[in-house]
Structures are given as C-alpha cells and as structure tokens.
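In practice, a research group might receive sequence data for several interacting partners and want a quick structural hypothesis before committing to experiments. The following worked case mirrors that situation: the sequences arrive first, and a predicted assembly follows.
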Amino acid sequence: MRVIASLGASLLLSAALGFGAQDPEALLRSGQRWLDAGNARAAVESFRRLVAAAPDSRSHYYLGVALLQDDRPEEAVGALRRAESLAETPNPALTLSLGTALLRTGASQEAIEVLMQGARHFPRAAPILVQLGYAHYTRLEGEMAREALRRARAVAPNNAQAPFYLGLAEAALGALEPAAEAFGKAVVLDPGNFEAHVALGRTLAQLGRPERAREAYRAALATAPGLPAALVGLGRLELEAGRPEGAVASFEAALAAAPRHRQALYNLAAALALLGRMEEAAAVRRRFAEAAAAGEEPGRSLSRTRSKARPR
Amino acid sequence: MRTVTAVVGAFLALGAAASAQPQIRFTEVAEASGIRFINMYGGVGSKDFILETTGSGAAFFDYDGDADLDVFLVNGSRLGYDASQSLSNALFRNEGGGRFREVTGPAGLESYGWGQGAFVVDHDNDGDLDLLVTRYGKNLFYRNRGDGTFAEAGEAVGLDDPQWGTGAAFGDLDRDGVSDLVVVNYVDFRVEATPRPGEEPFCFFRGLPVMCGPNGLTPAPALLYRGLSDGRFARVEGQAIGAERYFGLGVVLGDLDDDGDLDVYVANDQTPNNLYRNDTGAGGFDFTDIGLSAGVAYNEDGRAQAGMGVDLGDYDNDGRLDIVVTNFSHDYNTVYRAVGGGWFLDESFAAGVAEPSYPYLGWGTGFRDLDRDGWLDLVVLNGHVYPEVDGGITESDYAQRGLVFRNRTDGGFDEVPPTALEVPRVYRGAAFADYDDDGDTDLLATVMNGSPALFRNDTGTAAAWAGFRLVGRESPRDGVGTRLLLTGGELSQVREARAAGSYLASSDSRVIFGLGLGSGPFRVRVRWLSGCEQEVEAAPGRYLLVVEPRDCAGSGRTGS
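A structural hypothesis for the assembly, expressed as tokens:
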C-alpha cells in the first residue's frame, strides 16, 4: 500500500514537473492507462516498447515505475538508474522512485544515499523526506528517521504519511508520548489509515490509557471491519482489565479473519487459561507453536509499531 | 480475574498509605575499597566472534566463613591468547571497614581462559561455600577446603563439561537435602566453523558488518545435574531440561507455583524462554517446560526476545513471584507479573519498565528493596555487544548507563534520578549483596574490558530492616530456596533465599526485608525446602541466624 502511495506521489510529481507529453505519445498514454487500471504487467510491456522507440530518461523512468508496481524491484532499479544517467537535471520523481525501488530490494543504505541527495536538491519535496524517514526507520535509525519525518511535517503539514511514520519512529525509540501525538495527527489527516489507528491504540495502551486505546481500535475497525490487529488490541485491553471472557471473544474474532495470527493465538491461550479452560488453551497453544515454527510474523500491523524494530 | 481485581484494590489501599520516599543513591567505591581488577574479554574496538561478547560475571560469597562477604571476579581472554597473555580470575577478601584485599593466589583460585559466570554452593553441606566457574571450555569447580583455600575438582565431581557454559544455578531440586545444579549453555561454537563479520546475512547490525549470531549458529542444550550425598554430581538426561536447544544465558531457581519446590526459569537469547515446572517426586526428577502455557516464553506479541539476565521477586507484594528478563536494545525488558493460577502476563509497559529500556541492551538485573520501604525496586545494567556501534553510523552506544527503578507501590516503577549508575560502561554481570552489613543492598557490576564498579548503597532512609541468615539441616545447609513470609506493619512480603540469578552472577543469599517506617512486631514464617516450617520474630537492624529445626521436615509444624 505504501509503495503504491509512493508511486502515486512520484507520478504526481512527474506530471507537475512536465514529464510526459512527448513522442511517442500513444505508447506513453497506453502505459499510463494500464497503470491507472492496476495492470502493471501490461504497463511494463507498453513502456518497454516506449523505451525501444524513445530510449530517453523519461521512458526509462516510466518503465521503472511500472516494474516497481509489478513487484520487480531489481529490474526497476536498473531502469531507474538508466533514467537517472540520462537525465539532464535532478528529478524528484525519479529520485523518489529509485529510492523506493532500492528500499524494496533491501539495499537500504543505497536508498538512503539516493533519498538524501534528493532531499538536498529538493528540500521541500515531502514525499522524498517521508521515504527517507521510512528508510531510516527500517534500519532502526530512529533519530535520523525522526529528523527526516519532522522536516516532512514542517514542509507539508497536511501530508498524512509523515506523522504516521514519525509515530513509528518515535515508538521504535521508546518515545511513547511523541508517538501517540504523531499517530493522533496521522488519523486526523487520514481517518482511513487503519494502521495508524491501530498504532495509536497500541501506543495509548502502552501509556496506560485503555479507554482512549479502545476508541482508537474501534476507529480502526470502523475503517477496516474485522481487522485482526485491532481485535487483538481490544482483546489485550480486556485481558489486562481482568476480563478474559471479553478477551476471548476479541481474539477469536481476530482468528476468524486470520487463523494463524500469532498474537491472537498467544493471547487467546492466555485468556482461556485464566478462565480455567485448560484443554482449549492447550489446543490453541499448539496452533501458536505451529505458527511460530512456521515463522509466521507475530501480527503484521501491530508488529510495525514495535516488533519490527527487532535488532538482529 | 477476581484475583487481579483484588490486587489492584490492594495497590490502591497501600499506595495511599505510602509515605514520601528517600532518593535512592549509590556511590561507586571499587577502587577506594581495594578492588583493583581488569577484565579482559575479547576485542576492544571490534569483535569478530560471538564468543567475545558475553563477558564475565562475579560472585559475592563468604569464602572464609568470617561472616562477611568477599568478592570473586571472573576473567576472560582474547582470541589467540594463551594463559601467559591472559588475566586471571580474582578473589578479594573483605577486610572489614569497606576494604578488600586480593587473595587469589593464596586461595588457589588463579585461573585463565574464557570465564563466564561464578556460582556459589555448599555442595557437600560442610559449612563452607564452594564455587563453580562456567566457561567456554571446561567448567571449573572449586571445592572449599575450609581453611581459606580451594582445590579445583571439576572432573572429580563431574562438572567439567566442555561446552560454552554461561548461566548456572544450584538448588535442591529434588528436596533430598543436597543441592542440584542447572547449567545453561549458549552456542555450540567453534571459531573455525563460524563466519566472520559480514560474511553471512546474520552478520550485520544496521548495515554494519558485525560478529555473527546467535541466529544462524547452533544453540546448545542445558545441563541438569543431581547432587549426590558424596559431593559429586550426576548428569540427568531424558528430562525437559536439555531436551531442546536454546541460546541459554540466564537461569534462576524459585518456587514460581508456590508448591514447595524450586522451579527453573531460563532466559534464552533469540529463542523462547523456558519455565521448567518441577514435579519431582519419589520417582526422580520430573520437569515440564510450561513457559508457553504460563505466558513467560514470549512477550505479549508472541515473539521471542533476546533474553540475557533474569531475576525473580514479588514486586507487587501479592505473595507470588514475578519475573524480569533483560533483552536487546530497541526492544524492551520484560516484566512478567504472576496473576494466579500459574499464569503470568507481560506487564512491562504497565509497570513502567519497558519504555525507558528501549535504547539499552540489558544484562545483569535484580529485584531488590533499595530504600527499605518493603517494596522491591529494580536494577538493570546495560552495555552493547557491538563495539562497532560507536562508529557514529548507528544511534547506539557501546558503553551504556545502568537503570534504577523505584517501586511506586502501585504496581509500577519510576526510573529514579541520576545515581552513580549513570556513568556509561560496558556492563555485564550484576551481583547484589549487603557487603558492608548496614542493612541495604549494594551492587557489584562487571565491566567488559574494564574495571568492575562497586556501587555502595548510600540511600539515606530512616526505614528499618531485618535480615536473615539461614542454615539448613534437612535442607541444604546454605539455605538457598528457603521461602520467608514476613507479616507486620502494613505489608506482607515474600522473599526467597537465592544466590544465582541476574547475569553470570551469584549474590548474597541472606534475606533482607525493608520494614518501612511501620512499627512491629514483624513475624516471619520460614518454609524450608525440606517442608519444615517455623516462625520467628524479626530482629530489626541486624541479621538473625535461623537454623532449621531437626526432625521437622514435611511435618508442617513450627519450630523456633
């Protein structure tokens, strides 16, 4: 979702900077239509023909964007590097896409170098700063992530991604109050960001504010009904409040949507044990052990706020 | 869940009654007290192998039976060094008046190599304390001759296992009056079979090439030994302990289900922690790993953390032992609160311990009542594993400060204002003891490739205290594992006599109760591992010698 958002931002930047509207127009429009329609594979084919017809920076750029959207980041890096080498002047859309592609290949240090250079050339390009902050965050470089994302917020106060990632960075640094403040802003700017609602709920719960946490989780569910991470969060609140019956209901609802959700399994076993339902707890623990052995992530959305910050 | 509600109610009532607390203060006095020791442990500016990262521990124990606590410090080595290039372990005799004098050579404790932890026991119940040193290489066992000297007897007593031993804990697991032993091992490690920094994907930290592991390396099994009446130990196999391999670092024994015997909790690095419930009966050892079912194997996300140090203590004074485990940086230290029914909840955030721990990589730890208010406070020592983090590329520091948390008496902790532990060091082990016999708990911290820090507790408090020194007869003579329940004033407090715990360390096994400002009398119910129970009256301001009555075992009757 974030990658798509980044691509969207880069395309917008591209349009704003006058990319496009050059020969051969038909191939360009065809590829763009495929991209708009969500058919990245077809877009790649159109842009390959465009590259063959007009092997300039713009053509390679669009090919790179389409490859990225088609989940082929290594090839995207190749196309975007080519676009970069042919470009006469630095281009923020190209920088953003290249940084994103590098990040997707796992070359986070290279991504940061590209994005930092872009941030120097275009200090008010909030998408670049956001992506730079996110890149630092993925490397557990919380202070640097915080700096980039604060700059993004300063230049684009209405950018909804900046406070969300800033919240993640603050949480990874253990700075829960600033994290809650940032997540709060993120949900105001983008009420549909259910991940931000969940992250806000989680942070508020950690700060010992269960009622506000409950509101945040419910807001997430209003946006994304049945969202396992929000249901697990609500279950944890019930568990910590000494209401294992309610917790069981929440965890079971989460598992209905995601049967191998490790957090839900782990905490459901706890709740069942507290209720004295030991055989059921044992069965759930077996499911948890299977999920753990299979290397299932502990819960995607929630883990982004903390568990992803695993150091080794 | 009625239990949880009741506990919360108790917090509110007692919290309201709590008086203003003195500030917890320590003064670092190692050099001034005569403890001059340099730890050598692996590379200083960089480390090529995980072997170079774990560090060495320490022990407080009264090796010469003169009723004060002496200090033993473990030393390590460097890759490629032999004994002539390494530095020895060291023993410092407590001379009184806060002074120590080194007596390593005369005591027969000179030794070289990759020493890890030091663990104390009276294994032959002869009244003097013996010493196990875990190592990368054969573990050493020093039998106390009773004249101030030791004889190494690892092979003779069956404790010379050659794996990479880290944490260990002695305790009478089968309640036969003789101490048994659990040793945890870390990695099945050989230099020649281990990739070097940056050679594998698991050999990076934030893009920096660093030593590899433990992920990607082979974990090692724990060892369970039965203590025999002739002073030897016999390996016990076929038990849950040792059945699976983990990256074991910390181990502590305690009666976590309050059924009268000692259970075993193990903190593992990058692998789930273990709680081995002790169901040993007439048929021999019987352990079951209930870590997962008890809620203490993973954190609240169902995620294994990087367990290093561990301690037990009833921090909420509800009569049940809780658990603290220290973990890696950018993660949090975990407090598992016992909520009854054999279940624990990860309440690290609610307890206020998680958030401050994020920047730090934790090792030695302990629940101790530092201000004698009757509530256990918490100490955590920190230090990174990668010297390379100081290069400015990452945000971590290699040397890190320690953390001291004061118990708020409402189920949570507050980090206290700066103490001497603020000075950043590459901390590892933490041994706790009232080495100056003034009724408060002091702290000896080991420092990797540096000198240890002796933190004298200088908290000025008018609160009273009562100490207990235990001598078992049917139970092991050193009294380890004995549970004491103090009642009087506003509180009931449960403590267990324990030496091993924290990280690679052995602490003062005497029990100290903070009595707060309340007036007595304070009664203490003593439950020995033999099953014998007796009741004594606390003697504020001093250590009371409590001897287990004869012919009392299992009767439940009281003696005096």
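Before designing any experiment, note the following. The first helix of chain A runs from residue 2 to 16. The mean pLDDT of chain A is 87.
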